[in-house]
Automatic annotation (TrEMBL):
<keyword id="KW-0547">Nucleotide-binding</keyword>
<keyword id="KW-0520">NAD</keyword>
<keyword id="KW-0511">Multifunctional enzyme</keyword>
<comment type="subunit">
    <text>Homotetramer.</text>
</comment>
<dbReference type="InterPro" id="IPR029056">
    <property type="entry name" value="Ribokinase-like"/>
</dbReference>
<protein>
    <recommendedName>
        <fullName>Bifunctional NAD(P)H-hydrate repair enzyme</fullName>
        <ecNumber>4.2.1.136</ecNumber>
        <ecNumber>5.1.99.6</ecNumber>
    </recommendedName>
</protein>
<dbReference type="Pfam" id="PF01256">
    <property type="entry name" value="Carb_kinase"/>
</dbReference>
<dbReference type="InterPro" id="IPR030677">
    <property type="entry name" value="Nnr"/>
</dbReference>
<dbReference type="InterPro" id="IPR036652">
    <property type="entry name" value="YjeF_N_dom_sf"/>
</dbReference>
<feature type="binding site">
    <location>
        <position position="160"/>
    </location>
    <ligand>
        <name>K(+)</name>
    </ligand>
</feature>
<feature type="binding site">
    <location>
        <begin position="57"/>
        <end position="61"/>
    </location>
    <ligand>
        <name>(6S)-NADPHX</name>
    </ligand>
</feature>
<dbReference type="InterPro" id="IPR004443">
    <property type="entry name" value="YjeF_N_dom"/>
</dbReference>
<feature type="binding site">
    <location>
        <position position="260"/>
    </location>
    <ligand>
        <name>(6S)-NADPHX</name>
    </ligand>
</feature>
<comment type="similarity">
    <text>Belongs to the NnrD/CARKD family.</text>
</comment>
<dbReference type="InterPro" id="IPR000631">
    <property type="entry name" value="CARKD"/>
</dbReference>
<keyword id="KW-0456">Lyase</keyword>
<keyword id="KW-0067">ATP-binding</keyword>
Length: 505
């Protein structure tokens, strides 16, 4: 599904109004109704609701929500903030529509800002996607008092003050919402970890923006929905045999880190690969034969560290490497040989990334259109240098993928997948339980398995990260976030694939 910029959202808005022959006030009513519907399910009418409106259409949404909640017997306190001389037309229309017994209070100076009790229910409708400069002055004072009050803030469309799709300047005040209810599509800002404290939990409510516009508009930014993932899953054919699902090779493991190889291998098997061979240093032989009996194990001539490639390397359909490798000199040489000779797609993670990041020569040897790299943010910085913020990181992601013509799945709470053509996809599954050792090794195994099954590299990245996060989401129900381990993620992979293989409604 596409992510739109603030400017594209405005265009979608205008297109919908024209296509449906409605007024912008009608669309505002629809948006505010969708917001109110979510709000009513969350908060009881027994609570006082304090609604803060700014001068634009976001404030207009706040006015409509105030009217609707008042009609439903919520105890609404309405505040109109700042100079309203230039308020938007739809704001003014809805100010007129306020019922007689709902009198707004005007806040035009700091002393008029109310002091709120902790946990007071607040709706933030100061600014949305029309924000065009950092928030300072009176609006910043309101934001600061709301943030400091300990109130439970629900933001309409955007946390006020946060830029939709570019870095918010440091001097701008930003609401710290507990919930952000966004119209039609999530915003790029929600998917970046640096904004977690502002966005809180976000939900999307549909307001019927033109699907034609959304399908035709050009964007390089996407988020992966369950439907997208379901479309990707290839059902198995009745007359199947293991040869149809690929033979994967994992070059993984080292002394003291054989567990990483076990996790990658078990995930690869649960990811559906037809055959799996693991090449590991000698210390891994018994471990792997015992822990992963379904896989074949080849041993390296080196006892503790990977130092060579297997002889018949051409027979493998895909090679995954990195988990547990270490960065010994002999291993560096082996990775160099791999990049120089491999004809099949490569999935490169962990120490294999660290090895490549440490050598411009190895970077230059990355075969074009054949590589998926799966770094976490620190590994990514080793590849591209220090990044300034999450937008800078995205820019580096696009540039790196274009320069090396490779795919990168940049792991994080919304893993971002970069493609050689400059597209970026954000994942929407996963949870904090995954912040534990070994979950990255699991992802390497899954993606390797999918590439082995003839998914394109892009499909393998998208489906791989989605199903990885979904397994963790399913594991959340049984083990919770605190106790979750990488093995739990593997154990829930069957359920996750089943979930995605159900016929779509
Ligand atoms: N598209 C959709 O799907 C739908 C969108 N809808 C809603 O509309 C919202 C977007 O509305 P919007 O465009 O009127 O912008 P909004 O965020 O209210 O702010 C603009 C106002 O703020 C002002 N201003 C800006 N920055 C400022 C600052 N730092 N400090 C002070 N002032 C500042 C600016 O004034 P000016 O720049 O002229 O000084 C202008 O007056 C969107 O988020 C959603 O809630 C729904 O109703 C319908 C469906
Ligand atoms: K807002």
């Amino acid at each position: 599904m596409k992510l739109l910029t603030a400017a594209q959202t405005r265009e979608a808005d205008a297109f919908t109004i024209k296509e449906e022959g409605i007024t912008s006030t009608d669309l505002m009513e629809r948006a505010a109704k969708a917001f109110t519907c979510w709000f009513e399910n969350k908060f009881q009418p027994t609570e006082e609701v304090h609604i803060f409106c700014g001068p634009g259409n976001n404030g207009g949404d706040g006015l409509v929500a105030a009217r609707l909640l008042h009609e439903r017997n919520y105890h609404v306190k309405l505040y109109l903030v700042g100079d309203l001389a230039n308020a938007s037309d739809d704001f003014k229309v809805n100010q007129e529509r306020l019922p007689q017994d709902l009198k707004p209070q005007f806040i035009q100076q700091e002393t008029e800002i109310p002091q709120l009790q902790q946990k007071t229910c607040v709706i933030d409708a100061l600014f949305g996607t029309g924000l065009n400069r950092p928030v300072i002055g009176l609006y910043a004072q309101v934001i600061s008092i709301l943030n400091d009050s300990g109130a439970c803030i629900t933001s309409v469309d955007m946390p006020s003050g946060l830029y939709t799709d570019s870095q918010t300047p440091d001097e701008g005040a930003i609401i710290k919402a507990a919930y952000t209810i966004s119209f039609e599509l999530p915003k790029l800002a929600f998917l970046l970890p640096q904004h977690e404290q502002y966005v809180g939990k976000w939900h999307v409510v549909k307001i019927g923006l033109s699907q034609q516009f959304i399908s035709e508009v050009e964007t390089g930014l996407y988020f992966i929905t369950q439907q997208d993932a379901q479309h990707l899953v290839k059902p198995r054919k009745k007359f199947s045999h293991k040869g149809l699902y690929g033979h994967a090779l994992l070059l993984c493991g080292g002394f003291g880190k054989m567990g990483a190889a076990v996790l990658a291998a078990r995930a690869c098997l649960r990811g559906g690969v037809g055959l799996l061979t693991i090449q590991a240093p000698q210390v891994g032989y018994t471990v792997l034969q015992t822990a992963v009996p379904e896989a074949m194990t080849l041993t390296d001539k080196n006892r503790k560290h990977l130092s060579e490639l297997p002889n018949e390397i051409t027979k493998f359909d895909v090679i995954g490497t990195g988990p547990g490798l270490g960065t010994e000199r002999v291993t560096k040489t082996a990775i160099g040989q791999l990049l120089a000779t491999a004809q099949q797609p490569l999935v490169i993670d962990a120490d294999a990334i660290n090895i490549i990041a440490g050598s411009e020569k190895l970077k230059a040897q990355l075969p074009k259109n054949k590589v998926i790299l799966t770094p976490h943010p620190k590994e990514f910085e080793r590849l591209v240098g220090k990044v300034k913020n999450d937008y800078d990181r995205l820019q580096h992601l696009r540039e790196f993928c274009a320069e090396y013509q490779c795919y990168v799945t940049l792991k994080g709470s919304h893993t971002a997948i970069g493609t050689p053509e400059g597209k970026v996809y954000f994942n929407t599954t996963g949870n904090s339980g995954m912040a534990t050792g070994g979950t990255g090794d699991v992802l390497t195994g899954i993606i390797t398995a999918l590439v082995g099954q003839q998914y394109t590299l892009e499909e393998a990245c998208l489906l791989g990260v989605y199903v990885h996060g979904l397994s963790a989401d399913l594991a959340l129900h049984t083990v919770g976030a605190i106790s979750m381990t990488a093995s739990d993620v593997i154990d829930h992979l069957p359920k996750a694939f089943l979930h995605l293989s159900q016929p779509m409604p």
